[in-house]
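TICKET: design request
STATUS: open
ATTACHED STRUCTURE:
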């Protein structure tokens, strides 16, 4: 039986470029080469599609420089609509790279995780792994994902949305809205960014304007969220072929060892900053409730394929923080770790996600 050909797409024009490369490293290392043939395609920070090295070690995070897709004279030409053949062009000359059966985009952040690349692939007509255009766009935007969660009756973190022009025009009104969140600390987050890029914890309102500026460097709007006292928990969600009901993993817990919160460095650069515990120590009732809420959040955004559901467990119960629709996918990331603790090994998880691409509604 012929192998399926998978285009693994990574990098991208976002601040999470290098994290996408690390995710690709994980997928490249674990995909079943007896079942799948891989075409690695990178996207430079300028948005150019280029042929990439099919080498997991090359794209892995190290203590040195973060991995980066760079232009080296060759560009990838995507198939015309309704066809499957990719080409590479160099110095005006084009040669075939063969046909691709399915695209696996492992892009994080804007211009990739937010529905843009999903719409592009749909126009071509190729199957692809993961969430569709609407879910990707909604999941990337904290303002609208929280609105959809609230409309579905899910408990969400108390928050205020601030647009840059609103802050510049009427800061006093904005400050009044923020005060209504209650006591400090609060978190200031870019509304459409991930990996904790541009996130600040504010424990003194004298630092609020500076935190907004950091957030506005990543996005024209931010969410200001009340810091909740409790445990930070996550679980993995996976669609099931032929069923509207997704499968939900056991829970994992993030325990901060150093620093103020689970920021970019704690996630990707400082191995001692936080501990990822999976499975988390929860009662059967707590786990069942968390899994139920995760499935409801998944359906509230119209998700398909995969998501990581992030929660706070407080004295008042669970609060949905967000859904990450293309979570980190390195072998030590929480999404694969939760599935491994649930009995699904990494290569099988990748296989299931690829097979789901052919069963999209």
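STATUS: resolved
RESOLUTION: sequence designed for all positions
ATTACHED SEQUENCE:
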């Amino acid at each position: 039986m012929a192998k399926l050909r998978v285009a693994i797409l990574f990098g991208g024009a976002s601040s999470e470029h290098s994290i996408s490369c690390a995710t690709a490293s994980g997928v490249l290392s674990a995909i079943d080469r007896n079942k799948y043939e891989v075409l690695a395609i990178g996207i430079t920070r300028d948005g150019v599609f280029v042929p990439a090295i099919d080498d997991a070690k090359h794209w892995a995070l190290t203590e040195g420089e973060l991995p980066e897709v760079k232009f080296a004279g060759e560009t990838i030409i995507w198939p015309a609509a309704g066809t499957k053949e990719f080409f590479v062009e160099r110095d005006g000359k084009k040669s075939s790279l063969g046909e691709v059966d399915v695209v696996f985009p492992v892009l994080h952040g804007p211009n990739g995780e937010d529905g843009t690349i999903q719409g592009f692939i749909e126009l071509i007509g190729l199957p692809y792994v993961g969430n569709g255009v609407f879910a990707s766009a909604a999941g990337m935007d904290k303002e609208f994902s929280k609105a959809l969660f609230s409309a579905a009756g899910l408990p969400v973190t108390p928050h205020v949305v601030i647009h840059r022009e609103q802050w510049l025009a009427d800061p006093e009104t904005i400050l009044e809205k923020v005060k209504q969140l209650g006591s400090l600390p609060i978190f200031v987050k870019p509304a459409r960014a991930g990996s904790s890029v541009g996130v600040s914890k504010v424990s003194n309102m004298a630092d609020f304007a500076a935190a907004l500026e950091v957030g506005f460097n990543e996005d024209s709007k931010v969410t200001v969220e009340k810091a909740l006292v409790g445990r930070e928990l996550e679980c993995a969600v996976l669609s099931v072929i032929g069923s509207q009901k997704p499968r939900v993993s056991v829970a994992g817990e993030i325990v901060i060892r150093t620093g103020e919160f689970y920021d970019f460095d704690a996630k990707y650069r400082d191995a001692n900053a936080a501990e990822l515990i999976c499975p988390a120590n929860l009662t059967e009732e707590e786990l069942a409730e968390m899994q139920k809420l995760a499935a409801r959040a998944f359906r509230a955004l119209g998700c398909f394929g995969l998501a990581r559901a992030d929660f706070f467990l407080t004295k008042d119960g669970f609060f949905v923080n967000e859904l990450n629709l293309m979570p980190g996918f390195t072998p030590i990331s929480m999404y694969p770790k939760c599935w491994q603790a649930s009995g699904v090994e990494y290569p099988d998880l990748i296989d299931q996600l690829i097979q789901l691409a052919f069963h999209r509604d």
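CLOSING REMARK: The domain at 4-128 is CATH 3.40.50.20 (Rossmann fold). The longest strand covers residues 243-256.
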